[in-house]
């Protein structure tokens, strides 16, 4: 009987340790993912500002192409992965934020 209780207690403690480790791993992954997204957002803001300043005389499509080109180079240098849809969404979101800020100032 004592061996049986000891075995149950060991299994319960093992389960608690596994659940705690899983929780810690999840927490770390969430924080790392947030940090990566923030790095990408910062680079997108720089890329959009760069394209707006460096290519003033060009149309929106050309500015977009230049921003994406610069952004891909920087993301690759930093080893950050991305998809085309992700870049498009981040750039459009950044442009919308910039436009909203400009409207607030008017």
Spell out the helices and strands N to C: HHH
The number of domains is 1
What is the tally of helical segments? Answer: 3
Query: How many β-strands, per DSSP?
Result: 0
Work out the strand percent: under 5%
Low-confidence stretches: none
Rounded to an integer in angstroms, the radius of gyration calculated over CA atoms is: 24 Å
Main sheet attributes: strand count, strand direction, barrel closure: none
User: Share of helix among residues?
Assistant: over 70%
Distance between the termini: 79 Å
The assembly state of the depicted protein chains is single chain
Please outline what is shown here.
By secondary structure, the protein is mainly α. The protein has helices at 2-54, 60-77, 84-105.
Outline the fold blueprint.
Layout: H1 2-54, H2 60-77, H3 84-105
Helix pairs in contact: 1-2, 1-3
Structure description:
This protein is mainly alpha-helical. 88% of the residues lie in helices and 0% in strands. It is elongated, with a radius of gyration of 24 Å. The termini are far apart. The model has no long low-confidence stretch (mean pLDDT 83).
Features:
106 residues; mainly alpha; 3 helices; 88% helix; elongated
């Amino acid at each position: 009987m004592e061996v049986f209780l000891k075995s149950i207690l060991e299994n319960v403690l093992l389960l608690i340790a596994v659940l705690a480790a899983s929780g810690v791993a999840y927490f770390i992954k969430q924080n790392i993912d947030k940090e990566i997204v923030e790095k990408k957002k910062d680079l997108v803001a720089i890329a959009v500002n760069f394209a707006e300043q460096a290519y003033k005389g060009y149309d929106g499509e050309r500015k977009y192409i230049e921003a994406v080109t610069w952004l891909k180079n920087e993301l690759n240098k930093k080893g950050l992965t991305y998809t085309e849809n992700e870049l498009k969404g981040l750039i459009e979101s950044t442009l919308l934020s910039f436009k909203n800020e400009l409207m607030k100032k008017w």
